[in-house]
Specification:
Blueprint (H helix, E strand, L loop, with lengths): L18 E9 L3 H18 L11 E11 H22 L3 E12 L4 E9 L3 H19 L9 E7 L3 H10 L14 E3 L1 E9 L13 E12 L4 H69 L2 H56 L9
Antiparallel strand pairs: 1-2, 1-7, 2-5, 3-4, 3-6, 4-5, 7-8
């Protein structure tokens, strides 16, 4: 999930033009929690005999990775896009009460990373905040990128562990990092921009697993001062509005279909009435002809006339069926056009985003 964009990939420390990694996260300042997390790290080092390790200089929660670029670009990104999103969250969301749920292990072909995933009481980070920042702040710039859907706390990075290697070979995908972690509730009350400065450069594309010094970027910190109920009501209103819109569309489609059916039935009724009237008139004509035939002895001609009239009735019935088919076909054509128009509108929206001035490299 490392978006190396905007120029070269070999940063030099303490240069304003150097590139850094940028995240939206929270610096954990609860001293008791920090001490417990450091103990967790120590236990992992001993239990799994981790080799060639490094770890963050700060304990922090990560939500969204923004990219790898100079500070000037980071400020532009924040001022033009992320500030508005983070302000909206801070105004509608209050403090989040969280608990750690499990360990997670990832690998970037050089370093393994052990992190802790956590969740807040009402799952607002996972269900609302992270998806909102990703969809509104990441996707319009980079397109669809791989990202963590749950908030995490990075604990330690390492290159080798014979114990983990043995257990992974034994258990395969069922392997899990097992160790005790803090069960106490902790509070997330701010969101901020975090800068990660690489301590040393690597050959090739930079990674968020590389050794870094982390710090909070001034002027980009947002306190969660709103009310949780506001976010819930907004989400519910949006869901309700979407359901109403879908129901209206469904009803309109049904009305159009019913109207089409009515037109078709009317056409059929007109055809049946006309056919029936013509058939009755023809039967009367047949009877008259039969009467004349009895008088004149031309029964053979009258039978021929009767057969011709039956053919006329059948032709009228066929014409009615064709009118019904034409009506249904016309309705299907209109519905198809509506679906195509909606698809074209969606494609145009996607083209507008992809044709923006932002560029990115694939992972």
């Amino acid at each position: 999930m490392d978006f190396g964009i905007f120029g070269n990939t070999n940063p030099t420390v303490n240069n304003n033009n150097d590139k850094n990694h940028y995240f939206i996260g929270t610096i954990i300042e609860d001293e008791n929690l920090v001490k417990r997390l450091k103990k967790v790290r120590k236990k992992l080092l001993n239990k799994y005999n981790l080799q060639d390790i490094h770890f963050p200089n700060l304990m922090m929660a990560n939500y969204i990775y923004l990219g790898y670029f100079p500070l000037a670009v980071a400020k532009l990104y924040m001022d033009d896009i992320m500030n508005y999103l983070l302000k909206a969250i801070s105004e509608k969301c209050s403090k989040l009460y969280c608990n750690i749920s499990n360990f997670k292990l990832t690998y970037d072909q050089v370093y393994y990373k052990i992190m802790l995933q956590f969740q807040d009481k009402n799952n607002k980070l996972e269900d609302i905040i992270i998806p909102y920042l990703y969809q509104k702040g990441i996707t319009p710039i980079y397109g669809q990128k791989k990202h963590n859907e749950k908030p995490t706390i990075d604990v330690v990075y390492f290159k080798e562990s014979t114990k983990i290697k043995e257990q992974r070979e034994k258990f395969g995908r069922k392997f899990k990092i097992i160790a005790d972690y803090p069960s106490d509730t902790f509070v997330i009350d701010t969101l901020c921009l975090i800068q990660g400065t690489p301590i040393k450069s690597r050959v090739g594309t930079p990674s968020t697993h590389d050794p870094m010094e982390f710090e909070k970027v001034k002027n980009y910190e947002f306190s969660l001062s709103g009310k949780n109920n506001n976010m819930n009501s907004t989400k519910n209103r949006n869901k309700s509005n979407n359901e109403t819109l879908m129901n209206n569309r469904s009803n309109n489609s049904g009305n159009r279909s019913n109207n089409s059916g009515n037109r078709s039935n009317n056409s059929g009724n007109r055809s049946n009435n006309n056919s029936g009237n013509k058939s009755n008139n023809n039967r009367t004509l047949v009877n008259n002809n039969r009467s004349r035939s009895n008088n004149s002895g031309n029964q053979s001609n009258n039978r021929s006339l009767s057969n011709n009239n039956r053919t006329l009735v059948n032709n009228n019935r066929s014409q009615s069926s064709n009118e019904m088919n034409t009506s249904n076909a016309s309705t299907g054509y209109n519905i198809g056009n509506s679906m195509n128009a909606a698809t074209n509108q969606s494609n145009n929206t996607g083209s507008t985003l992809s044709n923006s001035n932002f560029t990115y490299n694939n992972e």
